[in-house]
Amino acid sequence: MKLEGIRVLDLSLFLPGPTASLMMADHGAEVIKIETVEEGEPNRHIGQRRGTPPDDTSVYFDCTHRGKKSLTLNLKSTAGRELFLRLAETADVVIEAFRPGVVARLGVDYAAVQARNPRIVYVSISAFGQTGPLVDRPAHDLAVEAMCGLLSLNVDASGRPVLPAMPAGDMLAATLALAGISMALYRRTITGMGDYLDLAMMDSILAAMPNSMGAAFGEGRAPVPAEERIWGGNAFYRIYETADGAHVVLGGVEMKFVQNLLGALGREDLVPLCARPGAGQAPVVEFLTETFRSRTRAEWETFMADLDVCFAPVNDLRTGLDLPQTHAREMVRVDARGHEHLGVPLRFAREPAMPRLEAPAHGADTDTILAELGLDAAARARLRAEGVC
User: Fold this and answer.
1) For 7-208+328-385, CATH number?
2) pLDDT of res. 369
3) Model-wide pTM > 0.70
4) Angle (CA) 315 320 322, round 5°
5) Phi and psi angles of residue 195, each rounded to the nearest 5 degrees, phi first
């Protein structure tokens, strides 16, 4: 696999950092999750659990920590900090996602690790980055989406912001972390030196919106979602209700799709109105709204089957997971217990991923890893008694 031989120390919690290290673990990296002695990763206990009786850990934890090892360390102790730094001497990557300044106070920041291992690639993921006036402001994904302006564009029919279904800042930061780590590891093969990556969730969101900057950059104003191409201002990029109360979408605004559908519906006269988004498309929206309400979702799926139109039913998540397409792409995998897991989106022709579907118990690998550092059984027992590991 692509990342065999790479050792990752993951200090991060919740979603962005663990997702980045998960993708590395799926492709062969050895990922060591550093957990607190008392509780460990918070998402071990967030949300639903599987099985009867239920598993010890949540589906959320399984989905972010499969294939990793778990080492418990008290980084607030001198001995715990020194053990981490000794382990960092053997590592290639460190990922942390504390609030800015925390790792420096703990003595495990980039400067401390780089002094012991100049080849280290060290990644800090935070809401707003390590610099700027918001550096000390606490935030999770929703607050970051609100601050940068994304949430103002995610609105209902009345124009009110609604809760997003996916944490864009978390997941974009995770994928960009993977990209940045890969770049730094490649560069290290040439220079022999590691690097430091300061990755902000807010930066990640803004960088993911190049197709949304027309009004802001071109006209210096805030966009009006109902008038914009992908937020409601185009009849062919909208959600429509069907006769049975279900929903479908049109998701392609190219004129060939417009002509194909309006032609099939006998309304070629409306095609010219679709050239520009905005209020001028109101007659098209009105026509399609009434038309889609005239048949059930199933009837529309049949009608659209032979048309070259960007059309899709609005499936619930369980239905989406059960689609033949999802299974053809192995995006749902099943372990020996019959439990489902998310698949791997990076599909290499050579050295494909081999995800290990088991997530570690809290501290499961502590003894083994400390033994690798040269601590005998007596020393490990003493550290446990002192609350270090």
Assistant:
1) 3.40.50.10540
2) 98
3) yes
4) 130
5) -165, 170
Closest CA to 45 of 359, 255, 333, 337: 359
Single out the residue of 50, 122, 35, 48 nearest to residue 80, CA to CA.
Answer: 35
Helix (H) or strand (E) holding 336: none
Per-residue confidence (pLDDT) for residue 229, from 0 to 100: 86
Q: Could you confirm whether 308 is annotated as catalytic?
A: no
Extract the runs of DSSP E, i.e. beta strands, from 182-236: 195-200
Say how far residue 221 (Cα) sits from the centre of its chain: 30
Distance of CA 11 to the CA centre of its chain: 17
3-state secondary structure of 313: strand
C-alpha separations of 250 from 149, 241, 309, 311, 351 in Å: 25, 11, 8, 5, 37
Catalytic pick from 170, 269, 308, 322? 170
Other residues' Cβ atoms within 10 Å of the Cβ of residue 89: 12
Q: How far is CA 124 from CA 113, 134, 219, 224, 299, in A?
A: 13, 16, 35, 35, 50
Check residue 173 and give its pLDDT. 98
Given this model, what pLDDT does residue 14 score? 97
* Long-range own/partner contacts, residues 348-355 (CB < 8 A, 24 or more apart): 348/2, 351/1, 351/2, 351/27, 351/28, 352/1, 353/1, 353/26, 353/27, 353/28, 354/1, 354/26, 354/28, 355/25, 355/26, 355/66, 355/67
Task: Give CATH 3.40.50.10540 domain extents, the chain.
Answer: 7-208+328-385
Distance CA 106, CA 240 (A): 53
| Helix, strand, coil % over all residues of the chain, rounded to 5 | 40, 15, 45
The pLDDT assigned to 232 comes to: 86
237-309 adopts what CATH topology?
Answer: formyl-coa transferase, domain 3 (3.30.1540)
Task: Compute the residue count for the chain.
Answer: 389
pLDDT on residue 132: 98
Tell me which residues of the chain have a pLDDT lower than 50.
Answer: none
Q: How far apart are CA 389 and CA 387, in angstroms?
A: 6
Query: Taking the mean position of all CA atoms in its chain, how far away is CA 139?
Result: 16
Task: Please name the residue that has the structure tokens 């372990």.
Answer: 335
Distance, CA of 257 to chain centre: 31
